[in-house]
Structures are given as C-alpha cells and as structure tokens.
Design brief:
- The chain has about 110 residues and is of the alpha+beta class.
- The protein has one domain.
- It is built from three helices and four strands, in the order ββαββαα.
- The strands form two sheets. A two-stranded antiparallel sheet has the order 1-2. The protein has a two-stranded antiparallel ribbon with strand order 3-4.
- Helix 1 runs antiparallel to helix 2.
- The relative contact order is 0.15.
- The mean pLDDT is about 85.
C-alpha cells in the first residue's frame, strides 16, 4: 500500500480510486498510448487521456474510452491484447479499422 491514493473522476463519469504503487511504472509510455494519441489526432472523440502528477513527481496516465464508439471498442481490444502479451497491429491498420466501422454505420444509416 502506498502513502497516497489517487481519486480520479474519469470521463466515463466514474470515480476511480487508484493506489499508484499498484500500477506498473514505465520510463517510456506503453505502446498502447501511441495508438491512443493517433486516434485522438485523427479527430475521434471516443478516447481520451488525462495526465495526473503524483506527489512523488511521477505521472499517471488515465485512459478513458467510450465503449459505444468504434475507437473505444478497438482501443479496449488493443489494451486487452497488450495485457495478454499479444503483439499489436500497426497504428495505421487500427485507424483503418475505425474508419471502416464508421463507414459501415454511415451506410446503415442511409439504407
């Protein structure tokens, strides 16, 4: 148990209580964050990252996904794959999959 607890009100409107010492610490961010940044830079709104500075000077990245959006579903699937030790596809492939899902939904709306 750490000396501090983080209370984080996520964009999913859930209050998360985090023991910072229970999280893995990285000097470099995990590859999933590169996917998240690419998705955000592509203009998709279903994924967000908030950075919180801890009392010890380190930072915690808080990832929020909207599971109702294609990007949220894909980022969640990528997170599960990464946590299971599986290799991740290219960022471009992930972005293309999001775009395809939106195109299918758009075509369904006009049918």
């Amino acid at each position: 148990m750490s000396d501090s607890i983080v209370f984080y009100h996520g964009r999913d409107d859930v209050l998360h209580v985090i023991d910072p010492d229970s999280l893995p610490h990285f000097d470099k961010h995990p590859p999933l964050i590169d996917f998240v940044i690419a998705v955000i830079n592509a203009g998709y709104k279903g994924v967000a990252v908030d950075e919180k500075k801890l009392a010890n000077g380190r930072f915690i990245l808080c990832l929020s996904v909207n599971h109702e959006t294609p990007e949220g579903q894909i980022i969640q699937a990528l997170a599960m794959a990464a946590n299971a030790g599986k290799s991740l596809p290219s960022i471009q492939f992930a972005l293309e999959q999001i775009e395809k899902i939106y195109a299918i939904h758009k075509d369904d709306d006009h049918a």
